[in-house]
């Protein structure tokens, strides 16, 4: 997720500390060092590093959901591309790449950490829903195949975006290839014109 | 990756310790506790927990590559399904799920850890290659579209498998949906008959 860092000052400090130290190693001291606030002040707001990271994840996902909701486009195809584009931006900055890594570390905490898992669940569902809305709008307007399984297609795209993100972190594979692959998917499996023209 | 645990006794002990404690928390003590060997004996073979985990990852990926190579099928479609099936087995055992999580934690270490990243890279490339071989064989035999971009399709499938794995860990999403989605992908984008029959 190539999201902007959250707005609140503590959240911004957490973002910078996560980019520098990673999820596993980051400490309240590291976050305080990035913030105008002292470690004591951080502890006044958040009892533990875990509480702060849960708040961070929540803030991150809600600002990202707001970005998803702000997506515009004159057609369902354009809105699909815009949604995909929010996820598959090239990460030119080293800090972006570090941040993607911290997000993957937090995903890997899902099974251990109920508070994380709840937020991840909520975001996964919100994302699937946004894609399903775009697919349904495209079917409605006649732009997409009328027999498109809207929920299954949305779920598949969310899986693809998760995979692009994981491979970007694990093996530095550029996300551009996935943008191209999803463009082919749109042509071959989603858009009506692909069938009509054959 | 629903692989069998590695064969060697230390590797099996490492597998069990990772399932119990996870990648971040596991210690040499934990591994020794699962092994017939003492902690001192483990340190005789492996200087550090990191060295042992690198050896474990290597062993895991090479046994998994051997499983990929042993895949059989009377057609390219069947071999494709068998390859996919190796990755998208239902994880009914709690220990399988814990192990998937440890693998995702190791993937998230890619950017921090060159030794891990090299092994992950090698496996990612080996996997893409196996799918590309199956796609090429299907094009050759006339089973798949002759204009199929074999490398791009293989790369896409590897992304999808990574995504299924990540979502399974992060939000407990069952992998069966991805099997069905890849079956549709095969019909709509890969197999020749899909075009001919339209």
UniProtKB/TrEMBL annotation, chains A, B:
- Location of the HTH tetR-type domain: 4-64
The GO terms describing molecular function are: DNA-binding transcription factor activity; transcription cis-regulatory region binding
Q: Which keywords belong to this entry? A: DNA-binding, Repressor, Transcription, Transcription regulation
DNA-binding region listed in the record: 27-46
What InterPro entries does UniProt report for this protein, alphabetically?
BetI_C, Homeodomain-like_sf, HTH-type_TetR-like_transc_reg, HTH_TetR, Tet_transcr_reg_TetR-rel_C_sf
Q: Which Pfam families match?
A: TetR_C_6 (PF13977), TetR_N (PF00440)
Q: Does the keyword Repressor apply?
A: yes
Q: Which PANTHER family match?
A: HTH-TYPE TRANSCRIPTIONAL REGULATOR BETI, HTH-TYPE TRANSCRIPTIONAL REGULATOR RUTR
Q: What is this protein called?
A: HTH tetR-type domain-containing protein
Read off the lineage from the record: Archaea, Methanobacteriati, Methanobacteriota, Stenosarchaea group, Halobacteria
């Amino acid at each position: 997720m190539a999201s902007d860092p959250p707005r609140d000052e503590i959240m911004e400090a957490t973002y910078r500390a996560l980019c520098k130290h990673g999820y596993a190693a980051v400490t309240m001291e590291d976050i305080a060092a990035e913030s105008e606030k002292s470690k004591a002040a951080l502890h006044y707001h958040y009892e533990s590093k875990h509480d702060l990271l849960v708040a961070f994840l929540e803030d991150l996902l809600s600002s990202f959901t707001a970005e998803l909701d702000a997506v515009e486009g004159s057609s369902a195809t354009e809105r699909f591309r815009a949604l995909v584009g929010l996820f598959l931006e090239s990460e030119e900055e080293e800090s972006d790449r570090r941040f993607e890594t911290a997000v993957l570390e937090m995903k890997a905490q899902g099974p251990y950490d109920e508070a994380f898992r709840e937020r991840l669940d909520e975001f996964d569902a919100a994302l699937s829903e946004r894609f399903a809305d775009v697919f349904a709008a495209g079917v409605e307007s006649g732009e997409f195949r009328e027999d498109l399984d809207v929920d299954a297609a949305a779920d598949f795209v969310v899986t693809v975006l998760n995979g692009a993100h994981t491979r970007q972190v694990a093996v530095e594979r550029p996300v551009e290839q996935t943008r191209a692959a999803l463009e082919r998917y749109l042509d071959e499996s989603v858009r009506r014109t692909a069938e009509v023209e054959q």
